[in-house]
Amino acid sequence: MTAQRDDALAAGSGTSARPVAPGKVSAQQVSVFYGDKQALFDVDLDMPDRMVTALIGPSGCGKSTFLRCINRMNDTIPGARVVGQINLDGENINDRSVDPVLLRARVGMVFQKPNPFPKSIFENVAYGPRIHGFADNKTELADIVESSLKRAGLWKEVADRLQAPGTSLSGGQQQRLVIARAIAVSPEVILMDEPCSALDPIATAKIEELIDDLRSQYCIVIVTHSMAQAARVSQRTAFFHMGAVVEAGATDEIFTNPRDSRTQDYITGRFG
Amino acid sequence: MTDAALTPAQAAKARARAEAETRLKRRYRAEARFRFYGRAAIILALSFLVLLLGRIGLQGYSAFTDYTVSLPVQVNADRVDMADLGGSNFNLMVAESALALLGETDDPYGEASSEMMAILSADLGFQILDRLRADPTLVGQTITVRGPMKANASLYYKGQISRDTEIGGRLLSDRQLDWLDELRERDLVSGGFNWTFMSRADSTEPEQAGVWGAVVGSAMMLFVTALLAAPIGVLAATYLEEFAPKNRWTDIIEVNINNLAAVPSIIYGLLGLAVFINWLAVPRSSPLLGGLVLALMSLPTIIIATRSALRAVPPSIREAALAVGASRTQTVFHHVLPLAMPGMMTGVILSLAHALGETAPLLMIGMVSFVPGVPETLTSAATVLPVQIFIWENASERAFHERTAAAIIVLLVFMVLMNLVAVLVRRRFERRW
Questions:
Q1: Global confidence as pTM
Q2: Closest chain B residue by Cα to residue A127
């Protein structure tokens, strides 16, 4: 799998220059209701493969809600209802035939607060591959754990203490551990819900670096409060406001030449 | 700058500071007062506890020691009917031997021997019967038996019956007291740990009564309760908390479980009477029946404790598991339940400890009966510790009073042990990471 990806990577290097093809993930007319309250209004958004799409917007604008539609985490919230279509490789994930459990193996997620399992570092990463039956034996499992930790840039720091509890790591390390856990099940899409909001600037820098590395292999969607972060890590940006996408496009465009006045107000710090 | 030169602004500032200081003092006083109330409440509660435990301890400790007598008994062939061994009066035989030992003889009315019988336990007679049954050739010989004194005699040795009390007010006559002194002087009597109390079941004779039957009954009953209530309660709670949809029906169920936890325990006894005895024909006063009733009683508590333990598991752990593609069941069994384990176990153990001390529902299902044997199966008649305490408290013999207190001590020891286990389990399973 990795080899294939590497080939694809070689073929498609210089991704940002590539014309925006139909997204790896593409949302069409997505609305979300929590009980009677509508949180998202007819969102259309394309999130291309091998790019980072940043979702920005003021608090409560629905960007996290939208993110949680992509791996159907909203299913777990009582009273939440999602309408519309979200296509992953052209297949509607809201279709009855799609199993959310299998979907979540394809669409990994990293949360705002690092949430490692209260188990060892090894177990944290090994859990996903184990339940999905990705490894036939212990050696294979150890290989997956090692390569995932390496890709998450954590291997050097934890190689000699894989049996230590995951929660004994620092906040930034925990967040990278959680990213390694998501990578371990070989997802195609990685969703990140404000992954750096609980971290100090140095840990944030490391995560951003990591996101930039991972971009070559995955479709990454990141929700962020920091405009600077969106500008640094993303190639595409969507500005959410009041539950709707106001403007979406290449990050450079959005930040230098926004078409909508609300976008301009937000990125220049006039509200939000 | 001198005081007189204070500007109005400075004066106002000084005034404000003085006011702030008095306010601060008042606040500290309120805090000190509150601390005092708290300490007083704790001291009051502790002193009541000490009073209670002290009284029980003082009353009960003496039951853990007892006096045994060792007597050579002349097995008189005339007195033994080999055809009907059990029909022979061995107690009289023992009494006569004791009298002979002390250099006395029985009077024609048998008053001396009956007074002697009143200080020697019938257990000695039973021992001779058993020995003769095993070996009939002992007839005509002298055999030495060792057994308990009658409870009143032990009370005298323990100093709880005094020679100074007037005859009418004491349970032993002067002559009996003389005999007891004589027996002790001749070193025939020895004191020691009361193994009888720890190894036998109930008896009409205090010196032969023990708590073992009740301990075994309690253990069997608790076994049934734990076997039923723990898995059912934990599974019900897990389903309700993790899987059940939140709608009106689950709300109704939740309210009803909370209400059931508050239902007086005697109602569960009535329910057990109606359902288990009358309808399902479970043998009455059996550990099985008691266990069933107490399982019903413990279920709501266990469910509530388990649910709150599950609720205490951070939702981020559930999200983490779901996000890597674990199914709901995997999330619950791999991550949520292990984290909730200490809380769940504590809840289960504490509600079992509560069940161990429960009396009222057991009275309704016929466990308040005289059971002289140690129960052998789950369906044999049994009694349990709290009910045994209840029965002995109502007994008239004075020696049962110390045994009541001693049984309470035994029950409390079991309670403390269970609570200790709860604490240890909590420590063992609790992950601080």
A1: 0.80
A2: B324
